[in-house]
Design a protein that fits this description.
There is one protein chain. This protein is mostly helical. The protein folds into two domains: 2-37; 53-142. The protein contains four helices and two strands. Helix 2 packs parallel to helix 4 and helix 3 packs across helix 4 (115-142). Bound molecules: zinc ion. Zinc ion (ZN) binds next to loops.
């Protein structure tokens, strides 16, 4: 039995459908509440769980990029490193919208009431707005002679 399970793939984690404790796909019943675990349903749930955690970690990258954008913006006013700030700002003005759009394509269709995913989605919206503002603010700067 253990052998056939190992053949399919590695062990994945998922929340127990009954009590919500974190369990993995190798168990036949929940160690916390003893609910029997259906292996097929567990795999589906584990796949959704890993997709949600991927969405959350990608969203935290987006937040880091948005903070870097602000940092580079401030750097532009610092003597000697102003050029580095401007270069970083130009890079992030392009990179952030691209990454935000990529996030929505990958994870925008996920339907879950997971609070972590809700937070990730909110972060993706805020970073998207920051990215658009940065892009918009770049246009008048660019038209300078
Ligand atoms: Zn349980």
């Amino acid at each position: 039995m253990a052998g056939s399970l190992n053949l399919s793939s590695a062990v994945h984690v998922l929340p127990c459908p009954n009590c919500g404790e974190t369990i993995n796909t190798s168990v036949q019943q929940c160690p916390f509440c003893s609910t029997p675990i259906d292996p097929a349903a567990a795999e589906v749930s584990a796949a959704a769980t890993s997709r949600i955690s991927q969405a959350c970690s990608d969203a935290s990258y987006l937040k880091v990029m948005a903070w870097s954008l602000l940092t580079f913006f401030c750097l532009m006013f610092v003597p000697f490193v102003g050029l580095a700030g401007a270069v970083g700002l130009w890079f992030l003005r392009i990179a952030i919208p691209v990454m935000v759009v990529r996030w929505w394509i990958k994870f925008g269709s996920i339907k879950t009431d997971d609070p972590d995913f809700a937070r990730a989605k909110r972060a993706a919206i805020i970073v998207g707005i920051v990215g658009l503002l940065a892009l918009a603010s770049a246009i008048p700067l660019h038209s300078h002679p």
